[in-house]
Each structure stands twice: as structure tokens, then as C-alpha cells.
Write a structure and sequence with these properties.
two-stranded antiparallel ribbon; single chain; 9 helices; mainly alpha; Four Helix Bundle (Hemerythrin (Met), subunit A); disordered N terminus; 4% strand
């Protein structure tokens, strides 16, 4: 969550801490869903018998992603960003998007793959958690220094997007009930590999658009409007496949976009990201 470093005003006994209700309520929801996801992972029975609890945990991680998406946007829309909100948001993120996905992959894959050498599974899962914590700490430092870390770009792959990719991809792999025991199937090394790759991407210097300045009032072309309507209609009609196909595809495209973004023209980037301050035309 982007913040204003001067958002604390002095009171009678020193600086007055500003805590805004609605944005921080959503951040609390993010933290709550992350905690419930962890509890469902713990409660899951071994093997395919625990798939129901695992799927619930995946749903809670994705709900935490939605809360994280909304809390910062709500704060910016209301002009009520604060240092407290930034710190609270990072503390929630490390549980929902750091500990929960790492524990998830360890529970459904690493625990069985490295059954005779459990320390290897712990180590691989901990790499993701540590890199996620480092990424959040770097983001907070850059935001406090008013540099690119808290502006229109993210330095490194955002940890909520990393968690969303892990959760949605796991849900996609569990779609086929006959191959739902991921630790025994042919895809058992895919999730650990993705987890390690995302660990590197979170602490990398690849830049990703934050979409914080996305202007929903900006004028759209007719073709873009038609495409958007058709896309939303398809989601409504094919809602059963939303979690299994659309979400992992969206998160994967966002991951890849960071690599191709420097190689496309500014005009094309503007059309995709639609940064408000760069748009000079009328807003209808």
C-alpha cells in the first residue's frame, strides 16, 4: 500500500498516529483469510482425502488477494494513505502471501517428495518465505524514501501476485480429480520449481506496473470497449472455469509482462497500463 510519509501530524504529546477504518478493515480481512488458509492446510488429511480442505485454503488465499487489491485502492481514492496502513499491510502480506503459499506447497508436494529428507522440503519452502519478507522490506524502504518502490512501478514481482499464481496454479492442477494427489503425479516438481522461480523474481530488479494510477474514467476506444464487454460476458457464462483457467492465466501473463515490458513502445505500454497522468485527452 502506497503511503504519504508526512501523513502523521503532531499532537499534544507528540506525533498523532492516523488509522483509517475501511482500508485497514480490508487489510485485517486479508490477514484473517491468510490465517484461515493456514488452519485449513493444517487440518487437511494426507493424500487426496484432504483435497477439500486444500481447495478451501486456496480460496482463502485468493480472497486475501482481493482484500489486498481493494485496501490500497480504497485508501488512495479517499486520500487516506498512512504509514500505519503501509506497515499493517506488509505484516498481513507476509502471513497471507508468504507463509500460507510456502506452507501450502510444502504440505501438498514437498512433504511427500522429500519424505526421507524433510529438511530439504523445509529449506525450499523457507526460501520463498524469506524472499517474500525481503521484498516487502525493500518495498517499505523505497516507499518511505519516496522512490519508485511506492509509485507507478513495483521493483520485483509483487508478493500478492506470486501467492495468487501459486494458489491458482495449484487449483488448476487439482482440477482433474484422478491426478489430485500432486505429490504422486507427473507435475510434482512443477509447484516447487514455480515457488523457487517466484522467490528469485520477488527480489529481482524486474519492474512491474502497479496499476495504482489506472484511470477508470479515461476515454476508451470502441474496439476496446467491445472487447471488455465480451470478456466480462465470457467470465459470467464460464464462471465455473474462472478459478481453474482464467486466474492462473492472468497471473502468468502479469509475470511474463515484466520481461517484455521494456521491449515494447511507450504508446503500447500506455494502452495497457493507462496511467492517468500520462493521458492528455478528454475524460468523459
Amino acid at each position: 500500500m502506497e503511503t504519504n510519509p508526512h501523513d502523521e501530524e503532531p499532537g499534544k504529546n507528540g506525533p498523532e498516529l492516523r488509522i483509517y477504518f475501511l482500508p485497514n478493515l480490508l487489510t485485517a480481512g486479508n490477514l484473517f483469510f491468510g490465517f484461515v488458509a493456514l488452519t485449513k492446510i493444517v487440518e487437511a488429511a494426507p493424500g487426496p482425502a484432504g483435497n477439500g480442505d486444500i481447495k478451501l485454503a486456496l480460496g482463502f488465499i485468493l480472497l486475501a488477494c482481493i482484500c489486498d487489491l481493494l485496501d490500497g485502492r480504497l485508501a488512495r481514492m479517499g486520500g487516506v494513505e498512512s504509514p500505519f496502513g503501509r506497515e499493517f499491510d506488509s505484516l498481513a502480506d507476509i502471513i497471507s502471501f508468504g507463509a500460507a503459499p510456502a506452507f501450502l506447497v510444502h504440505r501438498v508436494v514437498l512433504h511427500e517428495v522429500f519424505l526421507n529428507r524433510p529438511e530439504i522440503g523445509w529449506f525450499l519452502a523457507s526460501i520463498y518465505l524469506i524472499c517474500g519478507a525481503l521484498r516487502l522490506a525493500r518495498f517499505n524502504c523505497l516507499a518511505a524514501m519516496s522512490t519508485s518502490g511506492g509509485g507507478k512501478e513495483f521493483l520485483g514481482f509483487p508478493i500478492p501476485a506470486a501467492a495468487g499464481l501459486v494458489a491458482s496454479l495449484t487449483l488448476f492442477l487439482m482440477w482433474d480429480e484422478e491426478k489430485a494427489d500432486l505429490s504422486k503425479g507427473p507435475w510434482r516438481y512443477l509447484l516447487p520449481g514455480i515457488l523457487l522461480f517466484l522467490s528469485v523474481m520477488m527480489v529481482s530488479e524486474v519492474k512491474y506496473p502497479s496499476f495504482k494510477t489506472l484511470d477508470f474514467r479515461a476515454r476508451r476506444t470502441f474496439s476496446k470497449t467491445v472487447f471488455t464487454i465480451l470478456f466480462l460476458a465470457a467470465l459470467v457464462i464460464l464462471y465455473r472455469y474462472l478459478l481453474q483457467i482464467v486466474l492462473p492465466l492472468i497471473f502468468t501473463l502479469y509475470l511474463l509482462y515484466g520481461f517484455i515490458r521494456p521491449r515494447i513502445s511507450r504508446k503500447v505500454r500506455h494502452g495497457i497500463e493507462e496511467e492517468e497522468e500520462d493521458y492528455d485527452g478528454p475524460q468523459l
